[in-house]
Write the structure tokens for this entry.
Amino acid sequence: MFHGWKVVATAFLVALFGWGFGFYGAGVYLATLAEAHGWAAGTLGAAITGYYLLGGALLTIVPRAVDRFGERPVLLTGSVAMGAAVLAVTRVTEPWQLWPAFLAMSVGWATMSGVMVNALVAPWFDRRLGMAISMALNGASCGGVIVAPLMILAIDRLGFTAGVAVVVLVMAVTLWPAALLFLGTSPARLGLAPDGGAADRSARPTAGPRASTGALLRLPMLQSVMAASAIGLFAQVGFLTHQVAFLAPRLVPETLSLAVGLTTGAAIVGRVATGLVIDRVDPRIAMAATLAVQTAALAVLATMPSVPATLVACTAYGLGVGNLITLPSLILRREVAAAAFTAAVGLVMAGSQVLYAFAPLSIGLLHDLFADYATAWWLCAGLDAGAALLILAGRRR
């Protein structure tokens, strides 16, 4: 087997536990702590917002750390920080203790999110990069399907600390051996070319010099990707955070569970389907189409549709959830020099995270102001439509 696919499998585990603990797990910690201590949602939410903001800043440092120390030491250090931090969250007894625990978790999130996944996979693929990254980032969606539910079940059976410790142990016995076995090398060291096959040893290096952060930020194409990604993810995180609260008064529990499951399942289906064709199409057009579908789905949900229409809209929205994380990287891979790719991905993801950190709060304030979610969903639909135009405008330029 081409070694690159072993790296993809390892990157899948990185995304599985990175998003499982660092994204979907946040809701589990919040609900468990609120029930155990009676703390206000605002108190817990403020710490999570701080976690996202610091994590966004650290995302810009990860590419430099990988260049200096190597991908394997950075990943292993970050995963240890993630495991220790989530265990610390289970031990807090005072609200102020949330802050050091969540801020420590931001180190793990920065080293186990999309920047690291792209840094691991990109050197091994060229023609099939879109498929490879899509397969690896399916771990992010599976984090919501596997890791978060596993934590809920373990917490219910064993208690908060012991339950989370079991899932951390699962990460230790799966991710860490894979990282030790399959990371730390490159195609050139194995005498391979990207996508497999023997390397052409007579070819001259084409990576070129690394661009500075300032130079990258001045690129109009990167600005368009960053703006469209940040705006689209703001709408997406806002919707996913409040989806259950929006649907619960309108659906019976069984149908509510189905709606959430369809959204998450569609994210996996959408990313796999896109991965099969993305290497043969313009990723900017694919991203604009993704945002257009989400715009339509939000418009349907804002009009208070019937139960069948709600389920269809949730499914349609979910088809783009994974792609909105994957496609910016594929655009950058085509439009930025190879030597600057990981740094460019870090900047785009950091900018996106800083903005969407405020999405749950903003959507909640709109709900409180208008006493429903319709206005918030119309706003998110407008943001998605604007993001689609931005990404297409960058293509023309």
Observations:
- Residues 22 and 109 are 6 Å apart (CA to CA).
- Confidence is low (pLDDT under 50) at residues 203-208.
- The radius of gyration is 20 Å.
